[in-house]
Each structure stands twice: as structure tokens, then as C-alpha cells.
Amino acid sequence: MGFFPDQAQVKRYWINDGPKAVFITLYMFANVAVFIERFFAYLNTPAFGVLGYAICFAKGAAATLKLNCAFILLTVIRNILTWLRSTWVNTYLPIDKNIIFHKLLAFLIAVGTIIHAMAHYINYLRLSHAPLKTLTSLSPLLTAVPTISGLCYTSIPGATGHLVVMIMIFMYTTAIESIRRPLFELFWFTHHLFIFFFALLMLHGFPGVFGPPSFWCWVVGPLFLYLVERATRVMRGKQTTMLHLARQHPAKVIELRLKKQTFVYKPGQYLFLNCPYIAPNEWHPFTITSAPHEDFVSVHINIVGNWTGGVANLLNPEKKIGIVQQDLLEAPNGLPIFRIDGPFGAASEEVFDYKVVMLIGAGIGVTPFASILKHIKFQLERQMQLGQVTLPLEKVYFFWVCRDKGSFGWFSALLSALEKENVNNFLEINTYLTGALSAQEVRDVMYTDEENQDAITGLSSHTNIGRPKWPDIFKETARKHRDTDVGVFFCGPRVLSKDLYKNCREFTTAGPEGARFHYNKENF
Asked: Which of 32, 98, 238, 521 has its CA 20 to 30 A from that of 461?
């Protein structure tokens, strides 16, 4: 194997990462271009004679900050992104990678900030030692020789710059996954410091010693779109939402069935849920588990963390199993019991773009596929009534990996119904239990196997004990579906995601002799 990838490797890479790679490359070129343009523009200014290359680096980095701050807002305008998914733009723009791109922009902003700040510290040092005559020749605003501390902490650029850095430290540290997951509320509040972040950057360029402030020119458009987005979401969130039913499932999962006058969605989409009684300003994303034909919209919530624990305690204080609430509009304090906003587009929407799909869920990560499989079941029933069955999918390989036996409970009824209506054997169910069984559970499995029914899930498909052997699974799928685009959809932990992505790349063959695995992961 040579240093450079061969043609087959390039083709395999292109199938999953081509559009993303092209977009990121072009965007990085844009960063380099704006940096170079400002860098060389300041080589021919009086400021360069006094401050040297530090002013060039400061202004070049500032240009990249303006570009990246404008684009980072666009990555979170979810209504526009959802709309773009239904247009030709989705073919060329990696919309599903918006969160990944958001993180990349945050990294570029951090790098630009470091370069900009370090260069200006050098500039401040040189300005504090320059003769007054030289300073007045640079700008009429420089009427006295400044001190370093004055430039850093009492000038508008210095004071706002340091405040921006402090805000970034709060936002970046709480966005680390090990902090964000257990302390989501802290992440939510600190991330909303972006309002002050942008306000301070608007002021940062004043009084314009080395040129008029221009940050606002870059962000006014994205800010306007973002404000429209927020206004739309606020209005939608205020519409009356009724908790039609709350059901407590085993394994710390609570199901909420909600009703709202206008809520049109597609299988695989997600919504934001707010409980004013617990936290009036917090909105949490959850995958929709109901199907569009149902007269309610449902979500299944894994009870982890303060907010989800608060929801469970509010609806089910006695820790019962089964239905715990019905037809509830208000919380004990008179506020709406829930508010919902959405729906928003997700990767799982594209399931029906493929003839063959692999749906892979880990634990509660199975939720996106509940809606999809319910939709398929509804389509099957309707087509059977009409006497003509034309499935949107030719083959569905469903994989569900759980750590404990109880996690299979809430979804097994739907899977069982689909097994009975498995026209042309289109659905293949594979369940995996990775946790240990008790001695009694082992005996139950042995006895139930004789009755041709799985003791763990109640399905005719038997549960596999242990982790899936993904290389063998992908190899066999590639053998069965040559010259086929196979959609691989996953929702679950990052470690498993990396493994699945690796297998998609490894077993993809860009030609008629093999399958092409297209990897899609839920990101919201």
C-alpha cells in the first residue's frame, strides 16, 4: 500500500464523506482567503510601520472570526435546515452534519480568538512604548500614550475582548460531553450567553482606531434569520399542548403521548419538549416515536439527569408501572404541563430513499425507528385492505442492542405485530442482550425456546446474547445485496457509531460487484 490512497479507497471514502469533504475544504479555503486578504491589506498601512506583523495577524484573524461567527448562527437555524432537506440543496450540502460543522466553527473561532488576542497584546506593548507623535500620525483618536493596562482593561476593545474570552470559556467548557450530559441545564444556560457574545463583538471595534467597525456587516443577515427562527419557535411553543397519556415503562423509560392542534411531521423527525413547571426556559430534543397517521405525537424519555428525573417525579411520584397520567393540560402551579416545538428534520427521514436499510438502535436509541416501523406497518395495513401491497422498502434489517432485559419491553408489541404482517419477509429483526442474565432468566430462556417464542422479547426472532459481530453482519449484507445502495441508520453512543462507520467504509465497494453502505447518524 502506497502513501496515497488508491482509486478504490477514494471511491469508498466519497460515498459517505464526499460532500462533507468538499464543503469543508471550500470553507477552509474561504477562511484562508479572508485571512490573507486582511493580512496583506495591512502591510501597506502606517500601522504596519509601528506595529509590524502583529497588526497583520490581528486583522487577519479578526476577518476569520467575522466569517465563522456569521456561519455558526446558520448551523442552528433548524426550521430553515429542515426545509432545505426537502430541496436539491440536500444532495450537495451535508445538512445532517450541521452539529459537526457547528463544533468545527467553534474550534475555528477559538483559534482565531487566540491569534487575534496574542497579536493585540504585542500591539498594546508597542503602542505603550511609541512616541506620541507617531501615535497621532496613526489615528487622531490616539491623543496620549496609553498604558498596557489601560489598553487591556479600560479601552472598549480591550474590555469587550476580555469579556468575550470569559464567555467563551464558560460556553466551551460546559459543552464538553462529560459535563453537558449530566449537567444539561448548565450547558443550556451558558450556551445562551451567545447573546452577550455577539453584543460585545458588535462593540469590540469601537472607537475604530485602525478602521471603522465591520463585525455587524457580517452577522446582520444571520442574526435576522436567527431572530425570525426564534420568534417562530416561540409562537409555536405557546400553542396549547395536552398530555394525552403518560406511561411508565420498565428500565427507566417514560412514554408521553401529546396532542396539539397543528403538528404535522414525518417519520424519523424530532421535536423540542419544554416543561414550564420544572424549567420554563429549557427545551430538550427528543425523537418522535409515533407515526404521522396517529392522532397524537409521542416521545420516549430515558430518565437520566435532573430534567428527565423531574418529569418522571412530576408525572409518576409513586413510581408505578403502566399508565400514570391521562388528559392533563396544566401542572400543579397552573402552568401548561408541556409545550412542544417542531418538528425538525433528522437523518432518519431519508430511510425511504433506499430499497435496503439497516436500522440500528442501542438502548433508547431505538426511538427514531419506532416511528419509521409504525409508518411501514400502517402502509402495509392500508395496502392490504386495497389488495395491493407495494412496500416502500424491499428489505429492512433491524438491530436493537440493549444492556438489560427490561429495555425490550416497550417496543416489543410493535415488532411482534410487524412479524405477523411480514410480507415477502421484508423485515428481519435482530435483538442483542449485552448484560448478564440471572439463573431464573436462563431457565426461562431454555424452556421458552422449546415453544418457539423468545423469553426475553416475546418475539419469534430469538435474542442473541452478547455484542453483534458487525464485520460478519456487514460482510453478509454486502454479499446479499450486490450493486445496491444500503442505508445504514444509527442512533446511540459515539463508540458504537465509530465502529459502524468504520464497517460502512470497509465493506463498501464502489462498483457492481459489491454493496455501497451509506452511513447516517442522528445528530441534534
From this structure: 521
